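Team,

Forwarding the record for the chain on the shared tracking sheet. I've put the sequence and predicted structure together so nobody has to dig through attachments.
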Amino acid sequence: MPETERAVAATQPAPEMARRLGLFAVTMVVMGGIVGSGIFINPYVVARQVGTPFLILGVWVAGGLIALAGAFIYAELSARRPLVGGQYAYIREAYHPLAAFIYGWGLLLVTQTGGMAAVAVTFARYFLELTRAPLADGAVAALALAALTVVNCLGVRAGSTVQSVLMVLKVLAITALVGCGLLLGGAASGEAAAGAGRLLDRPPSFDLLTAVGAAMVPVLFAYGGWQTSCFIAGEVREPRKNLPRGLLIGVAGVVVLYLAVNVVCLRVLGTEGLAATTTPASDVMRAALGAPGARLIAAGIAVSTLGFLSQSMLTAPRVYYAMADDGLFFKRVAWLHPRSRVPVLAIALQGTWAVAIALSGRYEQILSYVVAVDWIFFGLAASCLFVLRRRDGASGGGAAYRVPGHPLTTLAFILVSAAIVVNTAYKYPTQSAIGFGILAAGVPVYGLWRWRERRWSRRAA
C-alpha cells in the first residue's frame, strides 16, 4: 500500500457495531435463548424426581418466577449499562476485570460452547431420524454449527432475521403440541384424574426437599438463556428502552408456553406415564395424531434446537469481542468487519470450538457443569445492581426502569442463586468440582493476559 493510502487508512475511524435491532428482534432473541430442546424432553425428568402433578407444575412455576425475577434485574442492569457483552460488562463495571474475565472464560470453555455442542447433536439426531441420511450425528452437528457461523458473519441483521424466523417456527411447534394434545390427545384415565386432584401427597422431608432441588436443575436449564440478549446491547436501537421490554415480554411468554406444555403432558400421559417415558412430546403427539404426529413434533424439535443454536451464535461472541477490546483476549478477536460491522473472528472462534466439542463427544460431560457455573454468575451479576445503584446515585445512570421491590427482590434472587449452586454441588459433586476447577484455571490465564498487555504497552511507548 502506498504511503499516502496508508496514512489515510490510519486516520479512518474504526468501524463500530450498528444498532439495527428493534423490540421484536430483541424479544425473539430473549425467547430464542431460552427455548431449545429442554421443554420437549425435561418434563419427564421432573416427573421422576417429584412424582405428583402439583409438585411437577409447582417446580415449573417456581422456575418461571426465578427466571422472571432475573429478567427484572437484568432489565435494570441493561438500562443502566447498555454495553456490549451484557453480563460481562456489568461484572467488569461493578467489580473487577478479573471477575469479568473468569465469566467470559467459563462462557467460552463450558457454559456456551458445551451447551451449543449438546444442542447441535440433539438437532442432528432428530434431523437424521426424519431424513434417514447416512451421516454421523457429529458430522451433522458440525455442519449445522458451521452454517450458522457463516450466517452470523454476514451481519447482525442476517443473524437476527434467521433467529426471528426460527423462533416463530418454535412457537408454532409448541402451539401445535398444546393444541393437538388438548383437542385430540384425550385424557389419561384413572391415575391422572386422581393425581390431578391431589395437591401434595408426599409428606415434607429432607428427601422431598432434595428431590425438588434436583428437579429444579433441568427446569432452570430449560429456562436459562434470557441473560444472553444483553450481550447484543451495542446493536439494539434505543437499548435503555427496548432491552428491558424485550427481556420481560420474552421471559413471560416462555413461562406461559412451558406451563401449557406441562399441563398437556400431564393431561394426556398422566403422572406415571410422564415419568415412564423419555420422549414426552413425541408421546403426546403420537396419542393425538399417530405416527405422523410423532414425526411432526420431531421436526418441531429439530427447528427449535436449530433456533437455539442460531441465537447462541448471534449473542455470545459479543462477550469475547468485549474481552478482546479490554485487552484480555487476542486483540484480533475485537476486529469488526468494515461492511457487516460484526465481530467475525469472535463468531468464528465460538463456532470452531463448539464444532470441536461436538465432534469430540465430550459435550455431555461439559453440559453437566453448566448449571452450577451459570448460577454463580447470575447471582454475581444481580449483586452488581447494588453497586451500580450506589455509584450512579440520584441520577440513576440514565435508567428509565427499576426493579420492583428492590432490594428485597434482588437479594432474594441472589440467595436463590446461591442455593441452586449449593444444591447442584451437593447432588453432582464431581461435575460441579470440574466446573469450579475450570473457573479457577482462569485466574492464572488472566494474569498472563494482563502481563502480556502491559508488556505490549511498554513496547508501544
